[in-house]
Design brief:
With 226 residues, the protein is an alpha+beta fold. The protein has a single domain, classed as Hypothetical Protein Pfu-838710-001, CATH 2.40.320.10. It contains 6 helices and 9 strands, in the order E-H-E-H-E-E-E-H-H-E-E-E-E-H-H. It has an 8-stranded antiparallel β-barrel, surrounded by 4 helices. Strand 3 and strand 4 form a beta hairpin. It comes from Dehalobacter restrictus. This is VTC domain-containing protein.
Length: 226
């Protein structure tokens, strides 16, 4: 059974980001997927229905929400994940499955029958959604992520900047597709995920009390393009 985790999001400016990165680099190890430049590129393709339910539920602040997406890293098809992200009153969890490049393209093209034969729950859930014909890819979301971890408390801190989106969802695997900025260049998104509690030394490191928590969604930011 999936375990819910706590999640905090904040919008930060470039000065905040520089201060935080300087502190985090001194204290916490970086995520193992961090590239030589200090970040990795995350690229996602989000799904929604004809009524834009996932978008509207986020905008109205629904207590329970779920989103489906396909995700790749560093403009490579070596690892492609299908993910279902569930949020429930400030807590959340993810279910995931690995896709081949061919399966990924099939989903983009609306060929989803293979999902019903996959063992992972997320595949069966997406199959149920897509069989209506009204649940389809909506938008590309891409950003550069700096990630830090503290294993004893399963704490993960990420800073996402250069948030961009593409106008054509079907071009997800074409990494040369031009993208448009969806967030101001002087703004980034800070996320903190943890299990039962956030250790005090991590909270002090980030100085949570000096920043305002916000219900930020990169998916929502990018849907303004279509």
């Amino acid at each position: 059974m999936s375990k819910y985790r706590q999640e905090i999001k904040m919008s930060i400016n470039n000065f905040d980001r520089a201060v935080l990165v300087n502190r985090l680099n001194r204290v916490l190890p970086k995520d193992k997927h961090t590239g030589p430049e200090g970040f990795n590129t995350v690229r996602s393709l989000y799904f929604d229905d004809i009524n834009d339910t996932a978008l509207l539920e986020k905008l109205i602040g629904a207590k329970y929400r779920e989103k489906f997406r396909i995700r790749t890293y560093d403009h490579s098809t070596a690892i492609i994940r299908l993910e279902k992200k569930v949020k429930n009153d400030g807590s959340g969890f993810k279910e995931s499955a690995i896709l081949t490049e061919e399966e990924c393209q099939d989903l983009i093209n609306g060929n989803y029958q293979f999902l019903k034969n996959c063992p992972e729950a997320v595949c069966r859930h997406l199959y149920t959604k897509m069989r209506t014909g009204l649940f389809k890819p909506k938008t590309i979301v891409e950003y550069q992520r700096q990630a830090y971890i503290w294993e004893p408390g399963r704490v993960r801190i990420t800073i996402d900047g250069d948030v961009k989106t593409g106008l054509a969802a079907t071009s997800f695997l074409d990494f040369t597709t031009p993208l448009a900025y969806a967030l101001a260049s002087d703004t980034a998104i800070l996320e903190i995920k943890y299990d039962c509690y956030l250790p005090s030394h991590i909270a002090n490191l980030i100085q949570l009390d000096s920043r305002q928590k916000a219900a930020i969604s990169k998916y929502v930011l990018c849907r303004k393009y279509g």
